[in-house]
Design brief:
Blueprint (H helix, E strand, L loop, with lengths): L1 H24 L4 E5 L2 E5 L2 H9 L7 E6 L7 E4 L2 H10 L6 H9 L2 E6 L3
Parallel strand pairs: 2-4
Antiparallel strand pairs: 1-2, 3-4, 3-5
């Protein structure tokens, strides 16, 4: 009976393991500096469109002025890009810096189709 349970559970367990590893392979993050702005991508397709168009095709973006390390504007392709950027720049380094940094930038949605 135990062998039968193991035989029935093995494919389910294998599916969970392979599904997790497939998700991990889909991770993408890239930063590009262009014209005094920092563009942050969490989507490989959005990044490829941006590079193919030489920075003209940004699609719908989230723009935060003064958010960069030197006060530059940072343009994100998604909320995931914001989260990854904050993690990569150690955004949680100091609670007082967090409060100041949260108040300073302004966020605006922009689209290149306009």
């Amino acid at each position: 009976m135990r062998f039968l349970r193991l035989a029935l559970c093995a494919p389910l367990l294998a599916g969970l393991v392979f599904a997790t590893s497939a998700y991990a392979q889909a991770f993408f993050y890239n930063e590009v500096t262009k014209d005094g702005r920092l563009y942050v991508f969490a989507s490989a397709t959005r990044y490829e469109a941006f590079t193919r168009s030489n920075g003209a095709d940004t699609g719908s973006v989230i723009e935060r002025r003064g958010y960069g390390p030197n006060g530059e504007t940072v343009v994100f392709d998604s909320q995931d890009a914001i989260n990854l950027y904050n993690f990569s720049t150690d955004f949680q380094a100091s609670p007082s810096q967090n409060l100041m940094r949260r108040r300073r930038p302004t966020t605006r949605l922009a689209s290149s189709a306009g």
